[in-house]
User: Fold this.
Amino acid sequence: MDAIVADNLRKEFGGVVAVDDVSFSVRSGVVFGYLGPNGAGKTTTLRMIYGVLRPTSGTAYVMGHDVLREPAQAKKNLGVMPEETGLYSRLTAEENLIYFGRLRGLRGRELERRVVKLLQKLNLMEKRYVIADKLSRGQKQKVAFARAILHEPPILILDEPTLGVDVMSAREIRRMIEDYAKEGNTVVISTHNMFEVERLCQEVAIINRGRIVYQGSKDDLMRISGEKEFEDVFVKLVRQEVVER
Amino acid sequence: MKILRRGSSGIVKVTRSLGRAGYTFGKRPELIVLWKEIVDSFRDRRTIVNVLLLPLILMPVAFALPFFFISPKTNPPNVVVVVRDLNATKLVSMLMRDLPKVSFEKNIDPNKTILQNKADLVVIIPRGFSLNISRGGQSNVFYYYDPYNMKSSTAITMVSSIVERYQSRIVSDRLKELNLTESYVRPIKEVSKEVVSKGVSLASPTSVISVMLLPIFIGVIAMTGASAFALDMIAGERERKTMEALFTNPVSGTSILVGKYLAMTAIAFLSAIVTLASALASLLLMNLLFTSALGPLHRQENLNLTIIIPAAKALPLVLAGIFLAVVLAALTGNSIIAVVASFAKSFKEAQQYMGFVTMVLMLLIVAVPYMPPSMMNYLACVPVASIMVFVRDLLVNPSNLMPIAMSLVFSVIYLVMLLYVSGKVFSRESLISS
Assistant:
């Protein structure tokens, strides 16, 4: 079964089409890159999939659950790291994790065990009792990542997970993504970082002006385009120089 | 452990156990949201200042200061008596004995003395004062006072009562000479009877004030006491982009909003209780120290609840009613704030909207104590004012259940409507996407 299926997703804001009948599917167990230039409709598509925006038409399925009809079931299978970390500035790193862990049905010693394990893995134990407001951008991003995988979801959606993050923190987050995918989980990443795509993704979909211009294997795309660098392929696609799969 | 705690600020250390309580507190998502909002609010120093410190400091000051300044006991008015008739010894000695702060002059300019604030009242006993009276005639006593000075009015009341007693003696002597009784010159005697409901004690200065002020306090504090946090919980969360992450959880918008309402109500309730306790303590203290300030209403009383809640015999009902009113007012006020906050794009914009909304709320709240009792049935049907009418009726007429029930039913109907509207507005996706 596909982990995610986007079925003719369309979103209009006051008559302006942000996402135009987008369809794609994400196989279970792959790292899937969802790419596109700024304003292409990446974040809007992802928001419809993780259930915070209602599509104007079409729908999406998460592990077979319709996000419109069974939003709670769909959300239970997802871990999400939105573009903005969305941490509560007056809550400590630990409390931010407790809050979301509790809303995901975890509690007591099991929750504490997972919180401590993730903080250790992300080298954040020293910041356990520090309020989010006093964390660096990289540390905030790492806490937001820990929050997304705290309940060990089979699908992880990451919107620009390393944007504005220092090299060391970005490495740690990438390593964590790789480890998470190795455990058989599905990861969807929206990113501008082509190095990240080359390193992490097996499959990609590229969206431009609200429409999908390519979906398939990253290696196939490289082969078809004849380019050596993925960045060149991406630029060509966005300029609509590569048209057919 | 020392290393682990490095970087924590003072308020985080104090509230850390509250934070760790999140591991086990409550099972329902509403209670988990409540826990988070309480921790978040108490990390904000504004909470401590607004909810605890301000009421504890402001209430005693707000109540005691005016009484301190008008009470003849603590701050007696300065009376200057100009005696131009050296034979007016009886009146002079009465004034000397009964006025706490009095001086006697032979000749001063009364206008200048008042305008230069050298005295609150200048009394002039003119030449020939005693002679006129001894001949059976009428004499004048002149009062020079400042109409904008409250102490001037107090001084006139005090001097008048002394002059009235002196006059009564003269009249009594004259009547004796003519072999007549007082009823001959005063054929009518006025007798006033206070009419209060069954179980309600007669008015004391403090109970009059509390009947006027308690509904206002409940309205203002319970409705707007948590407004800063209520705005922050919705508009602030939207501005800081935390709402999106929150809505990725498999929890309904209704559960999140209910959790936030519980937190807002808890904070508003705490604020109202601290304010009421502080106000009641101030009233008790004021009653103890300054009661004679209120002249005719003054009655020596024991220090008990009837001086604040006149319907003390129905105390359990009144207290339960006040508790209910605080919850109703808090929920009503916060649902209005939630609607405002959901529309605003930022915390600042929400605050600007709230300025106008607060003015309207204040008008509805303050209308109740100032409207005549005949208007109460109409006000009971008006949103927000219905809660104030409910409190007022509980305090002054707890045995008449029909009007109390009417204002309560209307208050609940408006609350349900507001909760419904706020739920609809809160679930708009523009809360996340813009």
Notes: Chain A touches chain B through 47 residues (CB under 8 Å). Residues 2-83+154-238 of chain A form a domain with the Rossmann fold fold (CATH 3.40.50.300). The mean pLDDT of chain A is 90. The beta strands of chain A are 2-13, 16-27, 31-35, 57-62, 65-66, 78-81, 155-159, 186-190, 203-208, 211-217.
